[in-house]
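Listing S7. Sequence submitted for prediction.
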Amino acid sequence: MWLDHVNWWPRHGYVLNLFSGVTGACFGVPFALVGLDYLTRNQAEYRETERNRARAAAEVDSFVTSLLDVFNGRGLDDVAIRVQDLSDRIEFVRSLRLDTPERDDAVRDLLIAFGELIPDPRGSRRDQFKAFARHSDEMRTMRLWKTGVKTQWRRLDGARSQMAGDWIDKPTETAGHQAAEYLLMDGRNPWNPNHGAERDGAPVMRHFLADLKALCEAARAMEAHTQ
């Protein structure tokens, strides 16, 4: 300002240009560096988030594939709807008195619908709960299915950690985790020959369907979240 007052700048145009350039660099370069660093960091975080989402989606797809392995080629939504229908049917069966024709008919209808979801490997029709324990090959298939489902569910832990808290709601996840742990345990396994007589079949089936329902709900939530 003093040099301008004594009219020094007009006689030294080169110095004026140099001073202007230095002034612009002092303010412009730091601002540009900060701005570019912010944009670069945001882009890197976005790309990392997308990579994590892609990995999580792949793990979810593997879990859904494993879950649907025994359901006669049906999709997840179809299986979820049928499991809900079977859950309603088993509640109706449990509301009926034992050893009555009405209950026998309700059990038969339930098992027919169940056979459409998980067919008997020998093509025969189940008409009572204890019919599940007759075929060792079917029991072996279900044990392998359980192992696959539990293995894939554990692998989802890595996908969840990569998503840094951006995951499905906690109640659905917790219910799915418990269902994977309890899946086909004693008292929850219709194919277990030791689960008891006919009168014990309904509670066992109810527990199995509850686990299956929780797994389907978790799978649907994870699919929607990672798309």
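Caption to Listing S7: primary sequence and predicted structure tokens for the chain studied. The chain has seven helices and no strands. The mean pLDDT is 84.
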